[in-house]
Amino acid sequence: MRKNLQTTIFAILAMAILLSSKDVMAANNDTAPYGYTYEDSASGRTVYKYYEYGKTSYICTREFYSMQNRVCNKNGTVVTALSAGTGSRYNGFGLAGFFYSITSKGELISVDKNNNVTTLIPSGAISLVYTADDLADIVVTSSGNKYLETLKDAPVKDNPADDPAPAPVKPVKKAKNRVEIYQNSASEMVYDAYKDGKKFFSIVTSKNGKKVLNATKGVRLSDFAKGTKFMGIAPSYNVYMYEINNNETSLYCFKQNNWYSAEKIILSGAFKKFEKNENGFIEKVVTTKASYTIKQLTTSGKWKAKKTYAVDKGTYVTLYIKNSTKSHTLSISKGVLYLNGKAIAIGVSKKFGFISSKKFTYMKGGKVRTATIASPMKSKVFVSKARDFKKTSKGIINKVILTNGKVKKIS
User: Which has the least CB within 10 A, 6, 73, 230, 270?
Assistant: First the structure.
């Protein structure tokens, strides 16, 4: 008996450890590091940032930048003056926080967390391949793909590395409609949205990436954004952001001129990143399960009724409530009246319906009875001799026709 008890206890403990380890893995996955690469319009640099999760939020723990063929750490120390080019094709942070750069000689170099520079591949390096978390995990070489951290063979992924080497970047005239990104002296990220060549509005995210402010309108949009890269502006000038609040993660949209109300976006899978076009506008959302263009994004708000109304379909009537996605249905079968599938009365005639967003009515034996949706079985007699109901254009019952032909309002 004691042996069986010990076996049972060990089994329970093992299960508890397994479940807790799964929880830890899930939590770690939810707070995995990510990279953020952007063109800083104020300095003319391409900036590379590596974010790790701290006690309550993501913080930038490493930062590099590149200009033409120079790659430097945040303090300006030159890592290489022979970079094959600027941007994520040739530079970026890896999964473990090491910085990688490909030189014009085809070298792959790494910079560890102590800023020590090591040549990993002496020649043949072509480009880096990024994950959906904007971190480099593979290098494409003339002898095949290699994992950055181990230099072991890696699978082939969709990548522009097979394309001819890009020509030197020429100055491009700024588009009239664009988003310019830069970091200010307080280490806040600023997103200036331009429309027809003029600044339309500015969005600022706090140093830790959690707070988001429409600086032009003076409206704080969030205190719970997941991090810097989780905010973006669409070509429609709607602002999108991914939030963590009370263990719920959701994508929200703030539409132009409606900064005080966010619409919740329905996504399949967890958010991974925004993809931007050449003008800085987000054009795609990538999740763990799919990717969506901005046009494909849909909100739950579209199912909210714009007014309170009822639709009568003979054997059942459905009530839709203003500013709500909820509905209630009265149905009848063999004299039994049901509310949302639950029987609430017997011996009911085929005359029934809703009289408001909170109440309904029905006829039984010539009597009109009313009840609330909250307490449907506690009905009261409204009148004793009735013949029919009258409805508004929205399908709501508002009057009772008595047997003597007179009409009485019901509410």
Answer: 6
With H, G, I as helix, E, B as strand and everything else as coil, classify residue 19.
helix
Cross-strand partners of 50: 35, 62
Beta bridge partners of 65: 47, 72
Q: CA 337 to CA 409: how far, in whole Å?
A: 23
Four-point Cα dihedral 314, 316, 320, 325, nearest 10 = -130
Comparison of pLDDT for 16 and 84, the residue scoring more: 84
* CB 25, CB 37: distance < 8 Å: no
Query: Taking residues 279-298, what's their average pLDDT?
Result: 91
**DSSP code at position 23:** H
DSSP letters spanning 142-160: TTEEEETTT--B----S-G
CA distance 334 to 183: 70
| DSSP structure string for 72-116 | EETT--EEES-BS-SSTTTEEEBTTS-EEEEBTTS-EEEE-TT--
- State how far Cα 29 lies from the chain centre: 17
Convert the pLDDT of each residue in 185-244 to its tens digit. Answer: 999 999 999 999 999 999 999 988 889 999 999 999 998 888 888 999 999 999 999 987
Specify whether the CB–CB gap between 80 and 103 falls below 8 A: yes
| Residue 71 backbone dihedrals phi, psi, to 5 degrees | -120, 130
Side chain identity, residue 290: A
DSSP class of residue 162 equals G
